[in-house]
Amino acid sequence: MKRLDGSSLRMYLLLVKASVRSRMQHPFNFVVGTIMAAFVNVIDFALIAVVLRRFGQVQDWSMAEVAYLYGVIVLCKALYRTFASDVHQLEKYLVSGDLDQLLTRPVPVLLALMSQNVTLYTAEPLLGVTMVAWSLQQLMAAGQVGWAAVPLTLLMVVTGAVILFAIGLATATAGFWITRIRELQVVTEDASKFAAQYPLSLYPKWLQYVLCTLIPVGFANYIPSLYVLRGEPGFWVMGATALVAGLCLMLSLRFWRFGLSRYQSAGS
Predict the structure, then answer these.
(1) Quick one: pLDDT band at residue 268, thresholds 50, 70, 90?
(2) End-to-end alpha carbon distance in the chain
(3) How many domains would you assign to the chain?
(4) Is residue 268 part of a domain?
(5) Per the domain annotation, does 126 fall within a domain?
(6) Residue 1 covered by a domain
(7) pLDDT tens for residues 103-134?
(8) Transmembrane residues, as ranges (predicted)?
(9) Phi, psi for residue 58 in degrees, rounded to 5
(10) Which residue has better confidence, 222 or 115?
(11) How far, in whole angstroms, is CA 230 from its chain's centroid?
(12) Is residue 51 part of a domain?
């Protein structure tokens, strides 16, 4: 198995540049995809906003606070998908046998996979930044948060992206045994990300437990937001969030290496 070193990272960056250059050869597709992604996300939150505007608050969570949760998870997902888009698409490599080609690259297989079809997301980051900026402005005006919320939010986005990447990588690794992972991804990535758009306190206790342990998407935005927005239960939550992100990343990488060692290539 190839080791990660300086030459591997340089080769990875070259592959990323080549992938971006290839994607940008079709600017019309890029523009249309950006517009559609923005439209879908705006409509998605608009439905939430209508409910909040009608009822005012949902279990004492204001529209600004829910917008903050939504904006942060959107930014986390955009960051994860920008740098590791095809980790989510591993099934097609396994079904077609194209993963064998990545095994011949002079970089670790995971980096080779991450360098494929790199997508420069613009709609999601723009929407996420807009929503987070609006929500923080509203909360600052109300005296609920201060400027310290800005760097803490940046930390949340980074750790949240790591957590989403780890969840996505662990799910993809399961494909080395079951091949078809689309349905599993619906549960571990799509459904859990959708659930994290809302305060987890809305859900039954058993589901809160699942979203904070088995699929720890709650640590991507909800858990640290309790401190950023409300000062609860204390600053240690930010350290715990970073620790969870690091632990998830370590475990998912180990699981990936184990799964890859069990992979039977098309030529085997």
Answers:
(1) very low
(2) 16
(3) 1
(4) no
(5) yes
(6) no
(7) 887 788 898 888 887 666 677 888 889 889 99
(8) 30-55, 61-80, 148-178, 206-223, 235-256
(9) -120, 110
(10) 222
(11) 24
(12) yes
Q: What distance in Å separates the CA atoms of residue 186 and residue 214, rounded to the nearest whole number?
A: 15
pTM for the complete prediction? 0.85
Q: What is the pLDDT of residues 146-201, one digit of tens each?
A: 999 999 999 999 999 999 999 999 999 999 999 899 999 999 998 998 899 889 99
Integer-rounded Cα Rg, in Å, for the chain is: 19
Contact 79, 247 (CB under 8 A): no
Q: What is the pLDDT of residues 6-26, one digit of tens each?
A: 555 666 666 556 555 555 555
**Residue found under tokens 């917008």:** 67
Tokens linked to 182: 């689309």
* Domain with 228 in it: 6-261
